[in-house]
Task: inverse folding
């Protein structure tokens, strides 16, 4: 199974950029990299996904390493509302389905 | 777009009763829905994959007779926790994958189940 590794927790000051890393050294050539975030007592919220090229949307940017074995989610200006657990996810290719394998995620704390 | 709802948002029941949780895709058709369980301070654990019109596929260690899943339409899947016990108390979350959109799942807000 393709798995991801993320730091357990990170801290950031409000209004500053945040770089959340993810390692996925066993990724296959056709696996998309997904990022979700989960606020307390809520379901995960889609943030961004990409395959090879860097991606930008209104929430964040995704920088993907050239060898695709790591990626970084970038929040350009962290706000208190960005405090959440961020999950970097690959799908489970071995099952032939599109189910996700959730790791432990990174708990982001934003300091006012 | 891509909104998934769950009902109820929270439920308290007595031990031994059954509880049904609904998961609906509001603005898209979902050929596949997924059910997760999340205990406090832990990550999401996949329980089962539900395909419209066919039997659900359960993950190892999940009792299919205890957690009944029905996916009768392209917009609705239900999870029934039968004969619930206190250890079944958890946060249950569903997600849906849109037809033709192979990779992205959209998650519901979750259902908090407390079994007394």
Result:
């Amino acid at each position: 199974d393709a798995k991801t590794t993320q730091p357990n927790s990170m801290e950031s000051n409000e209004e500053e950029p945040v770089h959340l890393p993810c390692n996925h050294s066993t990724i296959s050539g056709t696996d998309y990299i997904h990022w979700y975030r989960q606020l307390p007592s809520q379901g995960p919220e889609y943030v961004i996904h990409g395959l090879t090229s860097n991606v930008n949307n209104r929430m964040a940017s995704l920088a993907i390493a050239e060898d695709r074995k790591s990626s970084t989610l970038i929040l350009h200006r962290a706000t208190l509302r960005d405090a959440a657990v961020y999950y970097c996810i690959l799908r489970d290719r071995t099952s032939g389905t599109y189910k996700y394998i959730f790791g432990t995620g990174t708990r982001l704390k934003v300091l006012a | 777009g891509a909104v998934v709802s769950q009902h109820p948002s929270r439920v308290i029941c007595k031990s031994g009763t059954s509880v049904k949780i609904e998961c609906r895709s509001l603005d898209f058709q979902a050929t596949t829905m997924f059910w997760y369980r999340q205990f406090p301070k832990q990550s999401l654990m996949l329980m089962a994959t539900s395909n419209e019109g066919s039997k659900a596929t359960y993950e190892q260690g999940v009792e299919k007779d205890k957690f009944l899943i029905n996916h009768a339409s392209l917009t609705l899947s239900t999870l029934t926790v039968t004969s619930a016990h206190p250890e079944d108390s958890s946060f249950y979350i569903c997600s849906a994958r849109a037809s033709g959109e192979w990779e992205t799942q959209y998650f519901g807000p979750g259902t908090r189940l407390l079994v007394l």
In short: The CA atoms of residues 17 and 83 of chain B lie 5 Å apart.
